[in-house]
Design goal:
Blueprint lengths: L4 E4 L3 E7 L3 H6 L15 E6 L5 E10 L2 E7 L3 H9 L8 E4 L4 E7 L3 H4 L9 E4 L2 E5 L8 E6 L3 H7 L3 E2 L2 H11 L36 H9 L5 E9 L8 E4 L2 E10 L2 E7 H10 L3 E3 L2 E5 L10
Parallel strand pairs: 1-11
Antiparallel strand pairs: 1-7, 2-5, 2-6, 3-4, 4-5, 7-10, 8-9, 9-10, 12-15, 12-17, 13-14, 13-16, 14-15, 16-17
């Protein structure tokens, strides 16, 4: 059992999308069904290029008369500019709201229950002037909360959560094999289906068209996925992101984010299978890597 804890995520920012056309505007652009974002449900989604390559991902929550995107703070203005290109005559406004709201995470045994939430991905409720919700990707990641700046942490403490370390949350994420935005997905190159977005509830296959939808669907139905982002145990000094992963003299993939002996790596599935069959080591720099298949991840049989 892990004592429930919370941490504020300084690396996350908040974008507000308001106006009468906010749902329709976003619906035609992102990979998930915006109509599902409601006061009792949050979603996770991505914005893609027209060729189906990754640009941004974020959580979408509905609060009051606006939608809010929990996204990477360092790339928030870039995201706002990208979305603004598609406003045309839509009755929407886009504004950075990071000075009004902060982003918190809560994890550990009973974290969701402490916030009054069932352990169901995406379940949401109003909380402390903002919104708390179970991570829409995976309930094992705990909960997230969009909270008014300066006031939200007191409500988290009153709910029985201890102040924790964001690094501990990051270790949990890595152990579960869940990507963290552009730390793990290369902008304008990564494909959602290589990065778990299907299994992690980031794509709605029944919604209408959106940017990059055609290539994403073609990749799924033609079974074109040859690489997957996988969690790996790292034996030795952790190499920097981008370090090639090798199987003998052959390149097998590339290392992504990591810490404390845990990392994610984008690996060729045939190389993972060959390493498992022969007992050969996957390496990155001087480190030895042991990949794992998370329970949530589906690999071809």
């Amino acid at each position: 059992m892990v004592r429930p804890a919370y941490a504020m995520l300084a690396e996350r920012g908040v974008l507000e999308i308001a106006g009468a056309d906010r749902h329709a505007f976003l619906q035609g652009l992102i990979s998930n069904d915006v109509s599902k974002a409601a006061p009792d449900r949050a979603i996770h989604a991505a914005l893609l290029t027209a060729q189906g390559k990754y640009l941004n991902d974020f959580f979408v929550v509905a609060l009051g008369e606006a939608l809010y995107l929990d996204a990477e703070a360092a790339r928030l203005e870039e995201l706002r500019r990208r979305l603004s290109l598609y406003k045309l005559r839509s009755k929407v406004t886009l504004a950075i709201a990071s000075e009004r709201f902060g982003v918190a995470v809560a994890w550990g045994t009973g974290a969701a229950a402490a916030l009054g939430l069932p352990e169901q991905p995406g379940a949401a409720r109003e909380f402390a002037g903002g919104l708390a919700y179970v991570d829409p990707r995976l309930a094992a990641l705990g909960a997230r909360a969009l909270l008014p700046c300066g006031a939200g942490t007191a409500a988290l403490a009153e709910a029985g959560l201890a102040q924790g370390d964001a690094a501990a949350y990051d270790r949990l994420r890595l152990s579960l094999g869940v990507p963290d935005g552009s730390r793990d997905l290369e902008v304008e190159r990564a494909i959602l289906l290589e990065s778990g977005f299907d299994e992690l509830n980031g794509i709605d296959w029944q919604k209408g068209c959106y940017m990059g939808q055609e290539l994403t669907a073609r990749t799924k139905y033609r079974a074109l996925i040859k690489k997957r982002l996988l969690p790996v145990d790292v034996e030795g000094k952790l190499p920097p992101p981008g370090t090639p992963v090798m199987l003998g003299d052959a390149e097998a993939g590339e290392l992504r984010s990591g810490r404390d002996g845990l990392a994610l790596a984008l690996l060729r599935l045939e190389a993972v299978e060959a390493a498992a069959k022969t007992g050969a080591a996957l390496t990155a720099g001087e480190a030895r890597l042991t990949p794992h298949q998370p329970e949530w991840l589906k690999l071809p049989q």
